[in-house]
Design goal:
This protein is α+β, with helices and mostly antiparallel strands. The chain starts with a strand and ends with a helix. Helix 2 crosses helix 3 and helix 3 crosses helix 4. It is built from 9 helices and 20 strands. The strands form 4 sheets. A 6-stranded mixed sheet has the order 6-7-8-3-9-10, with helices on both faces. The protein has a 5-stranded antiparallel sheet with strand order 13-12-11-14-20. A 5-stranded antiparallel sheet has the order 15-19-16-17-18, with no helix packed on it. A hairpin with a 3-residue loop joins strand 16 and strand 17. The protein folds into 2 domains: 222 residues, 3-Layer(aba) Sandwich (Rossmann fold); 131 residues, Beta Barrel (OB fold (Dihydrolipoamide Acetyltransferase, E2P)). The structure holds adenosine-5'-diphosphate and magnesium ion (MG). Magnesium ion (MG) binds next to helix 1.
């Protein structure tokens, strides 16, 4: 159940800065996920916590103790590597008991904790099978069991479900959270799957190019992202550039390539008259109707329509040329729109997110590198 602190972590590989000043406290008993594009430093970060990578600068503290010089064996961590690393010549039982064996625990004393873990992970029927005989899900459960049998209270998971089918992955992610909470562990879970991160975590960390962009609860990050990159990386969002045409106590008006939008006061960003800003809105918060609404309604034309199972996904073109992605729930009595239909989009004031125009430009701010 330890508390982990990373202070000023830096790591360079030649010209690549894998970690560029990372500070983070992970609370006792917390389930924390780290998301970010490939190559942003997630694995380097979790390996620095584990003691597999030695940072060039900065410290790792576990429960207030500086562990930076200690190797992985002395940090009390259970680590599930990104590259699945079960021992192929050992069956499930031996893989799971490995940690206790290398610590010199005699076979008779290993049995209790190993069997308890196998029972908890529902792996009893697989004990004598070898990794190549297991399904992907059973293999990952074995790897997680192995990481935990030595009694580690800190579980480090690097893309633990990445190699699995979507169905198995979805089931296992909830099992994983339950296991962590039942055992009172602290878990750090690296994933590139943003839905996985949002659905199991107490807090989510978004990383980009070796830095932490934003940390918050899944709802905070999804509904009120403070950083434009968070809005881009977690879920989907439409981005528009607008010029402030009027500001009053209630909110502000924008000219978006010739069309008007008004936005309530939201977040910590207060636009000033004449300023160029970025407006963002998630596709499921846009209303698509055949009749115009009152505020923030634009006429549009449907340019693509796809049925996605639980929703319809439309691309619409507004009169100012803007293409917006819109997601609407499926209703039994409505057949939806088809290409070429004329319709109206309403962008609710309270759902618009406002940002200053990034110094490096919108495109660079939204890029994954
Ligand atoms: P992520 O897990 O987010 O995909 P990594 O932490 O694996 O990212 O890598 C961050 C950056 O550091 C990448 O550009 C990667 O190529 C580089 N890198 C990571 N490990 C090494 C290494 N052992 N040698 C050289 N470059 C590395
Ligand atoms: Mg990685």
């Amino acid at each position: 159940m330890p508390e982990i602190r990373a202070e000023g972590l830096r790591k360079e590989y030649g010209k690549v800065t894998a970690l560029n000043g990372v500070n983070l406290t992970i609370n006792n008993g917390e389930y924390l996920s780290i998301v970010g594009p490939s190559g942003c430093g997630k694995t380097t970060f979790i390996k620095s916590i584990a003691g597999v990578v030695k940072p060039d600068a900065g410290e790792i503290l576990i429960d207030g103790n500086r562990v930076t010089p200690l190797p992985i064996e002395e940090r009390g961590v259970g680590y599930v590597f990104q590259e699945i690393a079960l021992f192929p010549h050992m069956n499930v039982y031996d893989n799971v008991s490995y940690g206790l064996m290398v610590r010199g625990v005699p076979p008779t004393d290993r049995r209790g904790p190993v069997e308890e873990m196998l029972h908890m992970m529902v792996l009893e029927d697989y004990v004598s099978l070898y990794p190549k005989e297991l399904s992907g899900g059973a293999r990952q459960k074995t790897a997680i069991s192995r990481a935990l049998t030595s009694g580690s209270l800190l579980l480090l998971l690097d893309e633990p479900l990445g190699a699995l089918d979507l169905k198995v992955r979805t089931v296992l992610r909830y099992e994983l959270r339950k296991l962590v909470k039942d055992l009172g562990l602290t878990a750090i879970h690296v994933t590139h799957d943003q839905e996985e991160a949002l659905s199991v975590s107490d807090r989510v960390v978004v990383m980009k190019a070796g830095k932490i962009v934003e940390v918050g609860s899944p709802m905070q990050l999804y509904l009120k992202p403070k950083e434009i990159f968070t809005a881009k990386f977690l879920g989907e969002a439409n981005f528009m550039i607008g010029k402030v045409s009027n500001v009053n106590g209630r909110g502000s008006q924008f000219d978006v390539s010739g069309l008007n939008l008004s936005a309530g006061i939201n977040g910590e960003f207060f636009p000033i008259n004449g300023e160029t800003c970025v407006l963002a809105i998630r596709p499921e918060f846009i209303d698509l109707t055949s009749k115009p609404g009152n505020v923030n309604t634009w006429a549009c034309e449907i340019v693509s329509a796809s049925f996605v199972g639980d929703s319809m996904r439309y691309e619409v073109r507004a009169d100012n040329g803007a293409i917006l992605l819109v997601k609407t729930p499926i209703t039994e009595d409505e057949s939806g729109f088809v290409n070429g239909d004329k319709a109206y989009v309403t962008l609710p004031e309270g759902s618009l997110l406002l940002y200053g125009l990034p110094e490096e430009g919108l495109e660079k701010a939204l890029s994954l590198e």
